[in-house]
Design brief:
Blueprint: H1 2-19, E1 22-30, E2 38-47, E3 52-65, E4 73-87, E5 94-111, E6 121-125, E7 128-140, E8 145-155, E9 157-164, E10 167-174, E11 177-187
Antiparallel strand pairs: 1-2, 1-11, 2-3, 3-4, 4-5, 5-7, 6-9, 7-8, 8-11, 9-10
């Protein structure tokens, strides 16, 4: 099921720019419950130009350090979000909006083996599906460019499984938390 969802999202990314009404890039700061805050970047495609818009966004957060042992574990998260936004006052200089949608997050788990003395570790975090809600403002710069600032709250839990220094590992990781995003988009 998850592979089908990932495949459809990749297809949407490839076909998206042809149908999108805007494409944007953003920087982000993500603060999940079980990791330290991590900075990231992302791409946002919007479909529609009325009060209701659909969006497809891809983010990359590297070095989300695991809070219990910060010097050993790092988690890389790639959220793929699909949602719907309601804009209030489209066409004005400043447009507030709210939105919600689904998050599909792909994880990569890294271990700093220099700290563990090169000890072998085989840890895996499967992709997970969650949801998000957001609130933000768009700033119309001119006919082509717009800026944005938003707070997105994502609810996702993941399971880390594997072999940690010869011991079985089965750890629940809560990736629930806010992301603060600032972006710039070109629209047509």
């Amino acid at each position: 099921m998850k592979n089908w969802i990932l495949g459809l999202l990749v297809l949407a990314l490839c076909a998206g720019p042809a149908a999108a009404s805007s494409i944007g890039f953003f920087v982000s700061s993500y603060s999940p419950d079980d990791t330290d805050t991590g900075e990231g970047i992302g791409i946002d495609l919007e479909f529609g130009s009325g009060p209701i818009e659909f969006e497809l966004r891809f983010s990359l957060y590297e070095e989300l350090v695991s809070a219990p042992i910060p010097e050993v574990y790092e988690i890389e998260a790639v959220p793929i979000d699909f949602g719907i936004n309601r804009n209030f006052g489209r066409g004005k200089t400043v447009t507030p909006y709210i939105g919600a949608g689904l998050s599909y997050i792909v994880f990569d788990f890294n271990v700093d083996t220099t700290i563990t003395g090169g000890a072998p570790r085989s840890i895996n975090i499967d992709p997970e599906i969650g949801y998000y809600a957001q609130v933000g403002l768009e700033f119309q710069i001119n006919e082509t460019w717009k800026g944005s600032a938003e707070v997105l709250y994502r609810q996702v839990d993941a399971e880390a499984e594997g072999d940690d220094l010869g011991l079985p590992l089965d750890q629940r990781i809560t990736m629930t938390g806010p992301a603060l995003n600032f972006g710039l988009a070109v629209q047509w």
